[in-house]
Amino acid sequence: MYLAILSAVAKLQSWPLAAYPSFEDMDKPEVTVLTMAAQRSDGIIIEINPIKHDSLTQLPPERLMGLQNSLLNAVEGDQRLRLEAFWRLWLQENPTLNRTASVKFYRDTLSSLPENQNHNLIERELVYECRTKPASIAAR
Q1: Whether the Cβ atoms of residue 31 and residue 61 lie closer than 8 Å to each other
Q2: Cβ pair 80, 128 in contact under 8 A
Q3: E strand map for 26-116
Q4: Cβ within 8 Å of residue 134, ≥6 positions away
Q5: Is the per-residue pLDDT at 107 higher than 90?
Q6: What does R_g of the chain's alpha carbons equal in angstroms?
Q7: Torsion angle (degrees, nearest 10) of CA 107, 112, 114, 119
Q8: From 35's CA, which of 14, 64, 108, 137 has a CA 20 to 30 Å away?
Q9: In sequence order, what are the residues at sequence separation of 6 or more whose Cβ sits closer than 8 angstroms to the Cβ of residue 34?
Q10: CA 6 to CA 28: how far, in whole Å?
Q11: pLDDT per residue over 39-84, tens digit each?
């Protein structure tokens, strides 16, 4: 009995005497997602959260989340290229965004608690910003 209490207090991994679950590394109720802010040539900004949109329907949500995580955690030089490639893919699925002049990519930290569903932005970090050419100009 005393060994079980000692292993629980000291957080020793000593099965079968360890106290499970230890809960020592519980994650915060937060999730990190990619958000894009596309500014059109007329100044209107459209905020895009790929997880909440119906685009890229060939990717199930868990694959899209994995793609976002790899984009946000890429090495800085590769990250720029990957984010630009992701934007081009997004444009193929959403031709209404062809008049976009610039895009800002953000790493948003959101609360995953259900009661914070409408007010869940905890932190926003600008990851990358790029200027784009509208499709009509690029085609010339």
Answers
A1: no
A2: yes
A3: 30-40, 45-48, 100-111
A4: 41, 98, 99, 100, 101
A5: yes
A6: 21
A7: -30
A8: 137
A9: 49, 50, 68, 71, 72, 105, 106, 107, 108, 127
A10: 27
A11: 998 899 999 988 877 677 777 888 888 888 999 998 888 899 999 9
